[in-house]
Inverse folding.
């Protein structure tokens, strides 16, 4: 197989985002060097395979369900028990003291006993200077993340691996940090180990709920990348310069981000400062989960970007461009009280975009779904994901049958392939896998990751031929599909 | 959404083995009692909602094992408690004598911010049994020296005084939570850009 491919669609000298190397180092935050150091020293975690420890817990669990079904005992209240237990994934957040903070399903007050059990498991292992990372019990996987001062737990039957669930837990932790900052979170628990954090997070559960759904549906999360709204590069450049023109004189403005439909239009940043894709995902989540933004003229909110700096807040001026253009503009500054200045800047940006006829192409691109692979001339390709590593951007065509109605199945296929490529014990470079339903080609090179889903009966030579053509196709359109510049104020 | 502030209280129950900690909980939460003794292994967890002054709070009750071999677990369990309940058996003097060490151990391990004022409640259980070894007076005296710790004589068997005792426990725990200052506005969080390092891992630096 041609391993020295010369086509690297979407690659540029300078990236608008920090390149992300798949899952590695994904949970490290820029301001937590101490943690990184200590983690490297004690990387020997434990995986408990069906130990007694586990069984006693599972017993309790089933006990609890039995009791619930034979007339309810209040202490094991699982809410609407069968509904609750049939969920294929649970996510819990608790304090180191075992107090509930968040449960994805059910009422965390009613589940308080269960949070106690989770804390006991984690701290019991901890007391022997070890770390509980996961428990594998039949088809259920328990993943624990002890991220002081919080404990995060995933209980999953989805087939996702430990790394993927850890990644998701890490996003939840970062989402909580984004609302409070890490400094504040630590201070709270230094002062009050018994603090009920739900007091401060009131209303924020919505963000976490949405983040979890979002991160399960979107390839962006496991790829560690973002997708751009397709635009002619001249249009994208002129949008960037409109933003720079209106903002370059504003002191302490760190990032200006324009996005639409879950796609990045442009990102202008202050020199020297970079944005990590996982921070950008939190920003997408903020915009997506706040429908009300659409109806207000603008919104001003403190927002911490954990990878950028977990110790403090940025302040975000969030607004949609205009009634006739549903792209969302975020201006992020370190100043607490410059909302007016930024509102003015936003007006200038909109005027400039109107004058330069940039709104129509944005609207047009929002309204036009990406081509399906088949329509682009790849008869045997049902769908694909192409990620350019150096720019942390990816591209995917529109969903086509049979996945139009089975998006989650497709995402699961991709997650599994991604997991196979990045298996820490046995990383792979190239996989061609055929099942009754489809054939999957996954390829990891230094420059890109590519996942292609073919018709099941395609032969290998033909598949490779398609892959080469596909890479050339993307290369030809890279100007449009990717943000190749890295504009600064 | 912020209108209804939820509150959850962590209550840890300590005392020698077989003084009736589990029975008290079972009586309080499920209104049930059994003569059979099943030693608690590690800890049991129960949830109970109570209403205090029109406010609904959830008690997360940590029923720990009194048996010596589980004592090392304590460290983890005591952390962040809002109230500690000490239980002894009024017919067994040794269970009373060990109260000091239970209390000291708790304060060392939990290291609450203000140990002097940390809320404890003492329960003298098995009130229904004869002969008594520890009089109410003696227990009260002990409490006086401990910052006037509230004392209740209970019977997990008959249920007498159990409800009242747990209500007092919840009230004391709630007082502890309410003294929490407004943490939200205490810290300034502005980022000073000069201090922000360029994040590690950003490949390109030609624009600087
Ligand atoms: N008569 C009487 N018996 C009681 C009372 N409370 C508990 N018992 C009995 O005392 C024994 C021990 O009770 P448990 O509640 O299991 O004791 P425990 O403190 O939880 O013991 P550990 O779990 O080992 O720490 C059981 O046989 C109970 O039936 C009470 O109020 N009156
Ligand atoms: Mg017991």
């Amino acid at each position: 197989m041609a391993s020295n491919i010369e086509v690297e669609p979407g690659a540029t000298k300078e990236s608008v985002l920090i390149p992300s190397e798949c899952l590695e180092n994904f949970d490290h935050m820029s301001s937590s060097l101490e943690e990184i150091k200590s983690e490297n020293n004690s990387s020997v975690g434990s995986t408990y395979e069906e130990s007694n420890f586990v069984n006693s817990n599972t017993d309790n669990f089933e006990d609890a369900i039995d009791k619930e079904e034979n007339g309810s005992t209040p202490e094991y209240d699982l809410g609407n028990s069968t509904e609750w237990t049939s969920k294929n994934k649970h996510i819990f957040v608790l304090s180191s003291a075992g107090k509930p903070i968040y449960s994805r399903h059910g009422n965390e007050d009613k589940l308080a006993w269960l949070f106690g059990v989770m804390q006991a498991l984690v701290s019991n292992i901890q007391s022997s200077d070890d770390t509980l990372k996961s428990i594998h019990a039949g088809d259920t996987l328990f993943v624990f993340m002890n991220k002081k001062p919080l404990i995060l737990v995933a209980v999953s039957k989805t087939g996702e691996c430990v790394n993927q669930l850890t990644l998701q837990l890490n996003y939840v932790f970062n989402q909580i940090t984004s609302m409070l900052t890490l400094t504040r979170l630590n201070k709270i628990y230094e002062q009050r180990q018994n603090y009920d954090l739900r007091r401060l997070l009131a209303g924020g559960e919505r963000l976490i709920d949405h983040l979890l759904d979002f991160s399960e549906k979107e390839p962006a999360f496991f790829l560690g990348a973002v997708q751009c709204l397709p635009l002619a590069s001249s249009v994208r450049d002129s949008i960037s310069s409109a933003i720079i023109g209106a903002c370059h004189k504003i002191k302490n403005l760190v990032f200006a981000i324009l996005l639409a439909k879950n796609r990045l239009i442009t990102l202008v940043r202050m020199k020297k400062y970079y944005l990590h894709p996982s921070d950008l995902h939190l920003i997408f989540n903020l915009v997506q989960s706040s429908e009300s933004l659409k109806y207000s003229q603008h919104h001003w909110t403190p927002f911490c970007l954990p990878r950028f700096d977990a110790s403090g807040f940025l302040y975000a001026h969030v607004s949609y461009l205009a009634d006739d253009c549903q792209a969302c503009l975020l201006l992020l500054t370190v100043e607490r009280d410059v909302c007016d200045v930024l509102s003015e800047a936003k007006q200038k940006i909109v005027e400039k975009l109107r004058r330069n006829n940039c709104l129509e192409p944005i609207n047009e691109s929002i309204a036009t779904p990406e081509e399906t692979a088949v329509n682009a001339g790849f008869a045997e390709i049902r769908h694909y994901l192409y990620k350019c590593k150096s720019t942390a951007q990816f591209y995917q065509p529109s969903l086509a049958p049979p996945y139009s109605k089975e998006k989650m199945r497709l995402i699961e296929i991709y997650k599994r392939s991604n997991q196979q490529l990045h298996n820490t014990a046995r990383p792979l470079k190239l996989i061609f896998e055929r099942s009754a339903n489809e054939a999957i080609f996954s390829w990891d090179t230094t420059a890109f990751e590519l996942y292609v889903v073919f018709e099941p009966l395609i032969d290998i030579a033909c598949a490779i031929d398609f892959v080469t053509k596909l890479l050339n196709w993307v290369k030809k359109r890279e100007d449009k599909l990717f943000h190749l510049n890295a504009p600064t104020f | 959404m912020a209108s209804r502030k939820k509150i959850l209280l962590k209550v840890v129950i300590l005392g020698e083995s077989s003084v009736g900690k589990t029975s008290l909980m079972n009586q309080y939460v499920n209104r049930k009692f059994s003569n059979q003794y099943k030693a608690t292994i590690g800890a049991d967890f129960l949830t109970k909602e109570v209403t205090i002054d029109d406010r609904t709070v959830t008690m997360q009750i940590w029923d720990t094992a009194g048996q010596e071999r589980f004592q090392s677990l304590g460290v983890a369990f005591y952390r962040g408690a809002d109230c500690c309940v000490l239980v002894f058996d009024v017919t067994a003097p040794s269970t009373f004598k060990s109260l000091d060490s239970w209390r000291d151990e708790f304060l060392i391990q939990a290291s609450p911010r203000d140990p002097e004022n940390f809320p404890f409640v003492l329960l003298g259980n098995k009130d229904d049994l004869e002969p008594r070894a520890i009089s109410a007076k003696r227990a009260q005296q002990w409490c006086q020296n401990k910052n006037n710790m509230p004392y209740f004589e209970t019977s997990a068997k008959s249920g007498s005084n159990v409800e009242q005792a747990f209500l007092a426990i919840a009230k004391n725990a709630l007082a502890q939570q309410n003294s929490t200052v407004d943490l939200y506005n205490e810290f300034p969080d502005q980022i000073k850009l000069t201090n922000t390092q360029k994040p590690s891992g950003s490949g390109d630096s030609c624009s600087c």
Q: What stands out?
A: Chain A touches chain B through 75 residues (CB under 8 Å).
